[in-house]
Specification:
Layout (H helix, E strand, L loop, with lengths): L2 E5 L3 H13 L3 E5 L2 H9 L5 E5 L7 H10 L6 E6 L3 H8 L5 E5 L3 H12 L9 E4 L2 E4 L4 E4 L2 E3 L3 H12 L7 H9 L9 H13 L4 E4 L3 E4 L8 H17 L3
Parallel strand pairs: 1-2, 1-3, 3-4, 4-5
Antiparallel strand pairs: 6-7, 7-8, 8-9, 10-11
Helix pairs in contact: 2-3, 5-7, 6-7
């Protein structure tokens, strides 16, 4: 059972999140102070830290700095009010792993926690690449062939899940569980809707439908340049024109 530590300025809010996590199979601990959070995280008995940016008696980023200085590599998800977005983004650079803006639904938190705790998770470089696709995990930016593409938070999480599992066929139920936090089967077509949106934004050949099973990221092939395709068409036309009796 994965162990999640929660720390924040509101013990009531942390306790509410702890109940939601426990109901979904996680073991939780609520830290009542920054010192308690630091001690718990350094104990080696914590798999992930969910941290409000203003825990009692300290600044949240100072706490994360203390953890990293102590070489504690536990993943950290920051919770930030909308007015604290700049601080949350700053916290991602070399310190935390992810952030969420308040208010949020428990399902989104569950999806983020599961993604960070999935089997075989390794702290890695902050940029994922697959062919022409590039995901900047810290800046939450997406590019295709160097061209920025605007994705929603959920779309980014979905494409990140595909890239991290590029060799696997992912069923709709797996995607609902990992990205939306649904634990039980559902007839919702939300996955299909989001896959359609990603194809429209990132390229229709990016995600392949495996009939009866789910979806898989396509081979990392760079699309043929437009001018090359045009040249091929010209050559084909010329060849047809030159053929004759």
């Amino acid at each position: 059972m994965s162990r999640v530590l929660l720390a924040g300025r509101s013990p009531e809010a942390a306790s509410f999140l702890a109940r939601g996590l426990r109901a979904n199979g996680f073991s939780t601990t609520v830290a009542v102070s920054a010192d308690a959070a630091l001690a718990a995280a350094r104990s080696g008995q914590v798999d992930l830290l969910v941290l409000d940016l203003a825990p009692p008696g300290d600044d949240g980023l100072t706490l994360v700095d203390a953890l990293r200085w102590a070489q504690v590599s536990v993943p950290v998800i920051l919770l930030a009010a909308r007015q604290d977005i700049e601080r949350a983004v700053a916290g991602l650079h070399g310190r935390a792993d992810d952030f969420m803006t308040k208010p949020f639904c428990i399902e989104e938190l569950l999806a983020r926690v599961r993604l960070r705790l999935r089997e075989g998770w390794i702290r890695e470089t902050p940029v994922l690449r697959h062919g022409p696709l590039e995901l900047d995990l810290l800046g939450r930016r997406t590019c295709v062939d160097g061209r920025p593409v605007d994705l929603t938070a959920r779309e980014f999480l979905l494409v990140e899940t595909f890239v991290r599992n590029r060799d696997l066929v992912l069923s709709r139920q797996q995607l609902l569980r990992h990205v939306w936090g649904y634990r039980h089967e559902t007839e919702s077509n939300v996955v299909d809707v989001y896959v359609c949106s990603l194809r429209r934004k990132l390229g229709r050949s990016l995600i392949t439908t495996v009939r009866g099973l789910g979806y898989r990221l396509s081979a990392a092939a760079t699309p043929e340049p437009r001018h090359a395709a045009g040249l091929a068409a010209v050559r084909t036309g010329a060849a047809r024109g030159s053929s004759g009796p």
